[in-house]
């Protein structure tokens, strides 16, 4: 088992001792990757009402692939022009797909946490839901934990005064993940910062995240 797990990245290059879940590029045509672990979903930024039904069908087909171990990133974003009700509808369809496939969901959320929470309350999926790139205030953090979300922290840890850097100490260890997302940094550097802010030796942090990874993917036959 590699030491570092990067739960969400857009960077396909291999890193030593690292297992990464690569966010597969937007679905147009079928998913053709042969090796590696991926997440696949319809990101709110690229939603298009005209192509949605087709895109969703492609996603449904492709996400059966065993290399696709999570659905997403998908979610809600209030900073974009895409109709918000449409975003919600698409997000709900993807949670239902994830539930059907029994694969976790990796979530993109901008200024829409109450909506994400109320959708989770309504649908009550059994699959883990991971908020990626969390960097929000304590109140939002508490609501997410109360509703059993997993929290993944990334490049916000580069700023010692960020919400992410402050909140990391509090995150229950069974809910924590780390990521590089689309940033130009290594997962080992994110682990080093996370270790410093949480006062946990890096080896302990590695073990915590490997355990979380193994637990949430225990139903999938991963060759790691
Ligand atoms: Zn991303």
Automatic annotation (TrEMBL):
- Looking at the Swiss-Prot or TrEMBL record, what is one Pfam family this protein matches? TatD_DNase
GO MF terms here are: hydrolase activity, acting on ester bonds; metal ion binding
Binding of a divalent metal cation 2, residues: 108, 132
Going by the UniProt record, its keywords in alphabetical order are: Metal-binding
Q: Does the keyword Metal-binding apply?
A: yes
Q: Where does a divalent metal cation 1 bind?
A: 73, 181
**Keyword Metal-binding included in the entry's annotation:** yes
Q: Which Gene3D superfamilies match?
A: Metal-dependent hydrolases
**Cellular component GO terms, alphabetical:** cytosol
Its protein name is TatD DNase family protein
Q: Which organism is it from?
A: Arcicella aurantiaca
